[in-house]
Each structure stands twice: as structure tokens, then as C-alpha cells.
Write a structure and sequence with these properties.
Blueprint (H helix, E strand, L loop, with lengths): L20 H9 L9 H14 L9 E8 L14 H12 L3 H9 L2 E8 L10 E3 L17 H18 L5 E7 L3 H12 L4 H4 L8 H17 L5 H9 L1 H15 L4 E3 L2 H13 L7 E3 L8 H8 L15 H19 L3 H5 L1
Parallel strand pairs: 1-2, 1-4, 2-3, 4-5, 5-6
Helix pairs in contact: 1-2, 2-13, 4-13, 5-9, 5-10, 6-8, 6-9, 6-11, 9-11, 10-11, 11-12
The structure holds nicotinate mononucleotide and 5,6-dimethylbenzimidazole.
The site of nicotinate mononucleotide has 23 residues, from strand 4, helix 6 and helix 11.
EC number: 2.4.2.21
Enzyme class: transferase
GO molecular function, one term: nicotinate-nucleotide-dimethylbenzimidazole phosphoribosyltransferase activity
């Protein structure tokens, strides 16, 4: 039977079994430390236990996927940087000399780049996953960024790529690179949080007053062009290649009962779309940090979540998810490696 290209059926995601929570809390309370003395790391350990449906979850190995793509909306002057920076940064990630590479080296996280839709042909590289949907999303101020078929392809590829990454890791971390994508994420937040446009539009890579006015006006034109509000259509109209593929990756990790560390504003917009497509996915998402990008705090509030770190980051690339990875590893080790106080006291 032909599948309808206009629809997307998310993979089946198990709702976490909350009856395990008291057992996880009791196990933590029995450890050689005063109950609750490790604060939010204990809450994180509980979450990891619920995600894995186990009293001994694992989180020692994290794999970061940096989803890269371009946006036709940059033709409207929404970013202070040219699209060419996207492909240049992909080259830098692959050479190991970007900020996220430096952080990943410090935290023992593996890094792969996913070409979801960079507007250039990229030479093959062992750390580059070629999943290109098209050479950049279309200009969302004029037409839908992606067709429904392209959107479904991006989501499906994201699910598959997450699954493969998790064959070799316990935790998936997601990050992104895409000049113009803070505008795409703002439009998605506007429709999916939902929230008024002015609460969703921020500086992105940085703007003076004139640049921010130009960005705001272009985003308003895109919003006026389409009244889409279901998550699949919002991804197609505004999200573009790397955001749609990241949304698929969130669904893929959740379907495998694995934690997914979500980076800043743009990665969170992808997680928001995933959660609107499949609400059970929320329990599998760990929001790594609160971005300095204007809309991020309200986006996280709309999702009802709190980020782990607050460092004033607004770079993207997965820098925040990579920095949070050791916290997950530590929380899981608390459940598996720490002695019980009763045994210590004899
Ligand atoms: O992660 C964030 O919170 C974040 C906030 C603002 C900007 N960024 C990064 O900056 C780029 C998008 O900014 P812009 O101004 O081109 O839309 C893209 O490559 C993102 O990785 C990332
Ligand atoms: C230099 C640069 C690096 C980035 N990394 C993620 N987004 C970025 C945007 C710019 C402009």
C-alpha cells in the first residue's frame, strides 16, 4: 500500500513506568551518603533509570551528532553571517578544531557531523554522515522550506542515524550548525509552543538594531505566508533539513529507550517538534543548558522542563550537550558504582 506522503507516523515510544521511581529513590537513599545530598544529580539518576527501565542504567558513552543544513531564509538577511559559514564550519568540525571538538575532547564524547542539507556538495569523510535531503531548505518567506516528502525523508533518516549512533553509545547528544536556523527555530516555537512571535525572535549569531528589525520583519512575512500549526507541517514550512532530521533523531533515541541530550535554542525547537509528534518522547529528553538566546527560557517553560546547566552559551554545535554529558555519566555511576551505607557500616 502507498504511504501518504503528507503524513508521518512516529516510531512507537514506550511511556516510562513511573512505578520504578520509588525503587530508584530507595536505592539512592541507601548509598554511602546522606539521602538527597547529591541534589539534582540524584534526580538525573532517577530519570536515567526510568528511561532505561532499570535500576542500573548506563550513560558512560555519549555520541554527539551535529546536524548541518542551510536555509533559503538567509536571502532575506535574517543572519549577520553568510550561508557559506555553514559549510566552512562543517569542514572545521571534521578537522577537529572547532569549539565543540575541544569540549568533546575534554569530556570524552565522540563527534560525527550529519549533512542534512548543506547547500554545497561535501567530500566524503569518515566522520561525515551523508544524509542530504536537498541543497538547503527553500526560502520560508516565499514558500515551504521542505516538501512533505522531504520532511518525511529527513525525519526517517534522523531516526535511522540516531539508532546507528546508539549501537556504539549509551547516550545520544544532538547539536546543529546552520546559518539562519535561529529564525527557523523561532517560527517553530511561535507555532508549536505556541508563543507570540516577539517572544521567539532573538539575536541568533548576533545583530545590531537594524539587523534585528530586518530579521523580525522577514520572520513575520514567513509567519503570514502559512498558518501551519501541526508539528509535521511546521517542520516542512519553517524547520528545514537539519531541524527536521534532529526531530527524527530525538524520536529515534526515545524509541530505543535511550537518553537524548538536547543542546540550545535550535536543538530544543527540534525536540519540541518531536514531542508534539509523539508526547512520550519528552521523558527521554535531557535539556543540557539554558541558552542565552531570547526565546529559549520560554520554550523550555512551554515544554515544562528545566535545563541542567546555565552557562550563558549561545553557540550551538552541541557545545552545551557535550558539556552536560559527564553529568549523565556521573548520575548513572551513582546507581551502579557507589557502595551501600549499610555495607560500609557493617
Ligand atoms: O544553540 C543556541 O542556543 C544558538 C543560539 C543562537 C545561534 N546559534 C547558532 O548560530 C547559528 C544560527 O544563528 P543565525 O543568526 O544564523 O540564525 C546556528 O549555526 C546555530 O548553531 C545557536
Ligand atoms: C563562526 C560561527 C560558528 C558557529 N557554530 C555554530 N553556529 C555558528 C555560527 C558562526 C557564525
Amino acid at each position: 500500500m502507498e504511504t501518504d506522503p503528507m503524513t508521518f507516523v512516529p516510531p512507537s515510544i514506550a511511556a516510562v513506568d513511573r512505578t520504578l521511581e520509588p525503587k530508584l529513590r530507595a536505592k539512592l537513599d541507601g548509598k554511602a551518603k546522606p539521602p538527597g545530598s547529591l541534589g539534582r544529580i540524584e534526580d538525573l539518576a532517577v530519570r536515567l533509570g526510568l528511561i532505561a527501565d532499570s535500576l542500573a542504567p548506563r550513560a558512560g558513552r555519549t555520541a554527539l551528532l551535529v546536524f548541518a543544513g542551510d536555509h533559503g531564509l538567509t536571502q532575506e538577511g535574517v543572519s549577520s553571517y553568510p550561508s557559506a559559514v555553514t559549510v566552512a564550519m562543517v569542514g572545521l568540525f571534521l578537522s577537529g578544531r572547532s569549539s565543540v571538538n575541544a569540549f568533546a575532547k575534554a569530556t570524552g564524547v565522540s563527534v560525527k557531523v550529519v549533512d542534512a542539507g548543506v547547500a554545497a556538495d561535501l567530500p566524503a569523510h569518515p566522520d561525515l554522515i551523508d544524509a542530504k535531503v536537498r541543497l538547503g531548505g527553500r526560502n520560508a518567506a516565499r514558500e515551504a522550506a521542505l516538501t512533505p516528502q522531504e520532511t518525511r525523508l529527513a525525519l526517517t533518516r534522523g531516526i535511522e542515524i540516531a539508532g546507528r549512533a546508539l549501537d556504539e553509545a549509551d547516550v545520544l547528544a544532538i547539536g546543529e550548525m546552520g546559518i539562519g536556523n535561529s529564525s527557523a527555530a523561532a517560527l517553530m516555537m511561535h507555532r508549536l509552543a505556541p508563543a507570540p512571535l516577539n517572544a521567539c525572535v532573538g539575536q541568533g549569531t548576533g545583530h545590531d538594531a537594524e539587523g534585528l528589525a530586518r530579521k523580525t520583519a522577514a520572520i513575520a512575512r514567513a509567519a503570514a505566508r502559512s498558518d501551519a500549526e501541526d508539528p509535521f507541517s511546521v517542520l516542512a514550512e519553517f524547520g528545514g533539513c537539519e531541524i527536521a532530521m534532529m526531530a527524527g533523531a530525538v524520536l529515534g533515541a526515545a524509541a530505543r529507550r535511550r537518553p537524548v541530550l538536547v543542546d540550545g535554542f535550535i536543538a530544543s525547537a527540534a525536540a519540541l517538534a518531536a514531542v508534539r509528534l509523539a508526547p512520550e518522547a519528552l521523558d527521554y529528553c535531557v535539556f543540557a543548558h539554558g541558552s542565552a538566546e531570547k526565546g529559549h527560557a520560554a520554550m523550555l517553560t512551554a515544554l515544562g522542563v528545566e535545563p541542567l546547566l546555565d552557562l550563558g552559551l549561545r553557540l550551538g554545535e552541541g557545545t552545551g550537550s557535550v558539556l552536560a554529558a559527564p553529568l549523565l555519566a556521573a548520575a548513572a555511576n551513582l546507581l551502579t558504582d557507589v557502595a551501600d551505607l549499610a555495607d560500609v557500616l557493617g
